[in-house]
Amino acid sequence: MDEDCVQLFCAQTTDIAPLFVAEAYDNVEKKIKEIHLESYRGKWVILFFYASDFTFV
Amino acid sequence: MAAVAAIYNQLRFLNTDVLAISTDSVYSHKVFTEVSPSASQVTFPLLSDRTHKISKAYRVLNEKTGSTFRATIIIDPEGMIVTKFVNPLEVGRNVYEILRIIQGIQYSRRTGEGVPANWVPGQSGIIRDPKYVGRI
Predict the structure, then answer these.
(1) Cβ separation of B68 and A28 shorter than 8 Å?
(2) Of these four, B17, B57, B78, B113, which has the most CB atoms within 10 Å of its CB?
């Protein structure tokens, strides 16, 4: 996690994507699990940030 | 969220996965998929960033509300951010543009061609050669 980054526009195009581990709800398996961004290496990933459940995206 | 679910199969076909992230809890995510007709169609994981660590690391946290901006970040298979764009608070995203960007990057990396404005799959790109400078 790149928390020391002080540049206004860091985490931008051509930067290394900060790695993270997060709890997630999997609606297929109907369970809570951990997601490691690192395990997606080799695939394209879309991080789709949205403000809140129950709102449009 | 149904809009993203609608293109998810096409994205998977392009070796692309979706991680949807908000600052809600996983319990909220669970109920969201249970009661919302649009969220019930989701087959990609809904991540919880309650600590704001992820949204801060990606510089997409709205400090005023504690929620994230409508940010879309695409990461390539080597782990590099290839694009980041943020929609207005008032206007939802065009998911077909996200799909087009993935198709465009993959096309460009495969062919070495440039991908011009309003390009759509099936069209050719722009060949980078000095002899074309000033001719397009």
Answers:
(1) no
(2) B57
Q: How far apart are CA B34 and CA B46, in angstroms?
A: 13
CB contact under 8 A, A44 and B74: yes
Check: complex ipTM more than 0.90:
yes
Q: Is beta strand B16-22 parallel, antiparallel or unpaired with respect to A44-49? A: parallel
Distance CA B98, CA A45 (A): 11
What does the CA dihedral A2, A37, B9, B71 come to, rounded to 10 degrees? -20
Mean pLDDT value across chain B? 95
CA distance A18 to B62: 18
Direct distance between the N- and C-terminal alpha carbons of chain A, in angstroms, rounded to an integer? 25
The pTM score is: 0.92
Q: Which residues contact B43 (CB under 8 A, 6 or more apart)?
A: A27, A28, B5, B8
Q: What is the pLDDT of residue A1?
A: 47
- Name every residue whose Cβ is closer than 8 Å to that of residue A26 and which is 6 or more positions away in sequence: A32, A33, B45
CB-based contact B48 A40, cutoff 8 Å: no
